[in-house]
Amino acid sequence: MSGFSAVKNLIYRSSNNFRKLILKYFSNFSTLNSLKEMSAVNMSTLTREDIKAFLNSFDTVLTDCDGVTWLDDRPLKGASATLQQLRDLGKKVFYVTNNSTKTRDEFVTKCSNLGFKASADEIISTAYLTACYMSDLGFKKKAYIVGSTGLTRELDSVGIRHSDIGPDPLRSSLAAFVNQEFHRDPEVGAVVVGFDEHFNYIKMLRAATYLNDPDCIFIATNTDERFPMRSDLVVPGTGSIVAAVEACAGRPAFKIGKPSSYIRDVIVKRHNVDPKRTLMIGDRGNTDILLGTRCGFQTLLVLTGVSSLEDVNEWKKSDNKDIRGCVPDYYLESLGDLLPLIS
Questions:
Q1: Which helix (H) or strand (E) holds 5?
Q2: Distance of CA 195 to CAs 147, 208, 320, Å?
Q3: In the chain, where the domains are located
Q4: What is the rounded CA–CA span in Å between residue 31 and residue 279?
Q5: Catalytic residue (one of 50, 66, 164, 319)
């Protein structure tokens, strides 16, 4: 092995943060300046020796779901076989999703229906993470929920009381609602915002009113702006709802899902995962990949969901730390394209 190859392999085995320190230190050296190109490397161009070093550098795989393993209810080609091959190589696999609409058991059922192996312990969803966070806080009051059944059922599982969910329409005039119909629940001590297809002005009013109390806890499951779609249709995500509530509440929410590093705390505490030997696979730079950057994971972007290679090239030019943090270590067209490389 040449000296240059040896250095490359050392960096492959290093944590994301250490790798970036090396690149910064050697930025003025002509020979090692090319190592900057290791940022967003096309994995299909790596040698067998490089792939072997890559596989030896992690024990745990965290994979996003929608846009990586499936789109809606359609499994993506080769994704299931790739994850099974990683399991066969001795890797732990966790599904890490910002989707708060399902419980872990419902995700297990979806995985099974689409041909993916999974257990409840391998599902890290934002509904589950929210329940973990509120349980760890020792929260004993009641939560006002902007969300769906996945969120409320996970809260039920840890004994956290909450408001009802579903439609909450304006039945008369706004003036009548404000002056006569709205009664603040004195037991509410937290507002939790997740995806809610019934979100409206009344729910925003209720949430902001509770949050006017500075002691009321404000939690958002995630901030994904939109859902990955197979067409040009834009389906707004939880982030649009969170932004609306934050605007009228006048304060930011504590974000549970990707790219919040709270996920790292949970997987380390509850699943004994070593961040330095973890690979994050995702389709979105500002959630999946930024999570990996912040937590010291290796990162692999697949181009079957939200982010594109054009996005990556733009992020590379930025001096903003968080935007630059969206640049993955590696990329592939799809998760299925990893299978022939590791078989």
A1: helix 3-13
A2: 5, 17, 29
A3: 53-98+259-342, 128-255
A4: 28
A5: 66
Residues 174-227: tens digit of each pLDDT: 999 999 999 999 999 999 999 999 999 999 999 999 999 999 999 999 998 887
Question: Under a CB-based contact definition with an 8 Å cutoff, are residues 153 and 102 in contact?
Answer: no
Contact 283, 68 (CB under 8 A): yes
Range in 77-91, 116-130, 226-240 with the lowest mean pLDDT: 226-240
Question: 53-98+259-342 and 128-255: same fold?
Answer: yes
Query: Which residues, other chains included, contact 148 with Cβ-Cβ below 8 Å and sequence gap of 6+?
Result: 100, 101, 165, 194, 195, 196, 197
Q: Is 66 a residue of the active site?
A: yes
* Total count of residues recorded for the chain: 343
Q: How far is CA 107 from the centre of its chain?
A: 15
CATH number of the domain located at residue range(s) 128-255 in this protein: 3.40.50.1000
Spot the catalytic one: 59, 64, 88, 283: 64
pLDDT digits (tens, 9 = 90+) for 112-147: 999 999 999 999 999 999 999 999 999 999 999 999
CATH class of 53-98+259-342: alpha beta
DSSP 76: P
Question: Is 64 a residue of the active site?
Answer: yes
59 vs 55: CA distance, rounded Å: 8
